[in-house]
Amino acid sequence: MASPLSQLENFQKNSDFVFLVFYRGHWCPFCLNYIKSLATLVPSIKAAGGQPIIITAEDNPSSLDIVREKTGYKDAAISDPCHDLVNDLRRKTLIDLAITDRKGYPHGMVQPGVLVLGREGEVLYSWAIRPSLSNLGGAKDRPLLEEVWRDVEAVVQGREKVVKGVYGKQTFFQGIGMKLFG
């Protein structure tokens, strides 16, 4: 199996941009809700020449099966349990993803983030959560992907020069609704 770094490089070579969504794990209702939102955007992202990719530190293949089943997301995924990709992105100062201790993650769990990179590696959008008590340790207060995509799409289509905007946030009730109602 190809390394997480080479997987991302391959996706970048074969698309105009990559739309990366980092998530905590299959057990997180907030992450599942977020990926469900991404799944609705996949056709638009692909039509614009992009490649959506979900990334996690989970290394159990059955965990990805659970995510796909619960969210309807069928596209690209990268497992990065040793944080090779995450550390490379941090080293290049493209995104500063937090890594926190959690049982079942020998090297730590990557907290949520979104990174959109152009074909040449230019950052079109970057956001990473800083876990705190107010955001339930990194669970909530994520920018709404629909709004992020709207701005990224404007840049990709040449209508804007940079992604800008203030985004609504995923609420506690949106995240927990996924746990209660699937």
Walk me through what this model shows.
The strands form two sheets. A five-stranded mixed β-sheet has the order 3-2-1-6-7, sandwiched between helices. It has a two-stranded antiparallel sheet with strand order 4-5. The mean pLDDT is 90. A hairpin with an 8-residue loop joins strand 4 and strand 5. It has 182 residues and is α/β, with parallel strands linked by helices. It has one domain (14-181): Glutaredoxin (3-Layer(aba) Sandwich). The relative contact order is 0.18. Helix 2 runs parallel beside helix 5 and helix 2 (29-47) crosses helix 6 (172-181). The chain has six helices and seven strands. The protein has helices at 4-13, 29-47, 61-71, 84-91, 145-156, 172-181, and strands at residues 17-22, 50-56, 76-79, 99-100, 109-110, 113-118, 123-128. It is 38% helix and 18% strand. This is Alkyl hydroperoxide reductase subunit C/ Thiol specific antioxidant domain-containing protein. InterPro entries: AhpC/TSA, Thioredoxin-like_sf. Pfam families: AhpC-TSA.
Summarize the structure.
This protein has 182 residues and is α/β, with parallel strands linked by helices. It contains 6 helices and 7 strands; from the N terminus they run αβαβαβαββββαα. The strands form 2 sheets. It has a 5-stranded mixed β-sheet, with helices on both faces. Strands 4-5 form a two-stranded antiparallel ribbon.
Biggest sheet: strand arrangement:
3-2-1-6-7
List the total number of helices: 6
Annotated CATH homologous superfamily:
Glutaredoxin
- What percent of the residues sit in helical stretches (DSSP H or I)? 25-40%
Q: Quick one: CATH class? A: Alpha Beta
Helical/strand content category: alpha/beta
CATH architecture: 3-Layer(aba) Sandwich
Indicate the proportion of strand residues. 15-25%
Distance between the termini: 32 Å
Briefly note the CATH topology name.
Glutaredoxin
Estimate nothing, just give the exact number of structural domains: 1
Q: Taking all residues together, what is the mean pLDDT? A: 90
Reported for the largest beta sheet, the result is: 5 strands, mixed
